[in-house]
Amino acid sequence: MFSTRNSRPAAWAAAAVLVLGPLAAACGDDGDGGSGPTTTPPTTAATPESPTQGAEPADPAAAEQQIKKNWTTFFDPSAPTDEKVKVLQNGEALRPVLAAFSGDKNAARVSAEVTGVQFTSPTRANVTYNLMVAGNTALPDAKGTAVLEGDTWKVSQKALCALVELSPNAGAVPGC
């Protein structure tokens, strides 16, 4: 009998290696022997935030639609890096991380399907999504966060970094 409980860690590991292996290699230690600034690892994107009083934006339906569209764009293998930068919090600073994905044959098979959005404030939301590999769900019900930056709902830096940290090969990734 198939056990969802026992297969979930294996699915996370498989997706992390498949999706993030090339990323970690491209963004890891450059071997210069220097030590950059130390950073505290981000909390996992799987830890949802609690809603606060007045937790929705002025137009929650439009915000949810934009979140779904932008998450789809972010995980769309055919979307150019410039488009992904626009829908990622601190996208310009994280451009090297995104560039590591472009042209990788494994990353070209990854997409995401947003299955739920819960606003925790007028400028933040918990996002539930399925991470797909070649059209098959590899990470069901993954958790992430979206943030409102200017007038655009974006994939949070915290969500990207939590995915990067899933890779057993992830070294120091700039911005995470």
TrEMBL record:
Stretch list, region Disordered: 29-64
Database matches in Pfam families: Mtb12_C
Signal peptide: 1-25
Entry keywords, A to Z: Signal
Coiled coil: none
Chain intervals with Low complexity compositional bias: 37-48, 55-64
Domain Low molecular weight antigen MTB12-like C-terminal: 60-168
Annotated family: Belongs to the MTB12 family.
Protein name: Low molecular weight antigen MTB12-like C-terminal domain-containing protein
Organism, as annotated: Streptomyces pristinaespiralis (strain ATCC 25486 / DSM 40338 / CBS 914.69 / JCM 4507 / KCC S-0507 / NBRC 13074 / NRRL 2958 / 5647)
